[in-house]
Amino acid sequence: MLKDNLKTLRKNKGLSQEELSVKLHVVRQTISKWESGLSVPDGEMLINISELFETPVSEILGENIEKKEKDDLKVISEKLEVINEQLSNYQKEKRKKKVQALIIIDISIILLFILLAILDSPYQTWDYSITEWAILGTFYQAFEWMFMRLAPIAVIILSTIILIKRNK
């Protein structure tokens, strides 16, 4: 695959990611993303990489072709299209999982808010002459006070983020 071949070619040539990025006129993070499979180089960049490593583009893309095909650019574009589609599917799945996590957090905040409202500050009836109860009651009251003020804001912000991310 592209990411493995790129890393192998770079190491065989004795180059660091930084050195390769300088030769290709990109930032080091771009090389890292290519080698991690998080993004792919465009067709022109693939040709530059091919010239730098003196390796056919087909080998960089992961295929050892004995005879050279006439429509090299067409083959490259088809392979890049497949790689980009896989990357797109991965990113969509990742976004979907993030939205699901945000929904769970949002619902948890709402449920905790309801629970605290139902409990109606039970620490008010505790015996504060016992040190442990006094400390626990103070922390409970502080948590409840902060949570009841911040939870609605958090729910609004999370709900907005969920709506924005779902519509992308």
What does this entry look like structurally?
The chain is mainly alpha-helical and 168 residues long. It contains seven helices and no strands. Helix 2 packs across helix 3. Mean pLDDT is 87; it is low at 64-69.
Summarize the structure.
The chain is mainly alpha-helical and 168 residues long. It folds into two domains: 67 residues, 434 Repressor (Amino-terminal Domain), CATH 1.10.260.40; 74 residues.
Q: Could you tell me how far the N terminus lies from the C terminus, measured between alpha carbons in angstroms?
A: 29 Å
Total beta strand runs: 0
Q: How many domains?
A: 2
Q: How many helices?
A: 7
Q: What share of the residues does DSSP label as strand, in percent?
A: under 5%
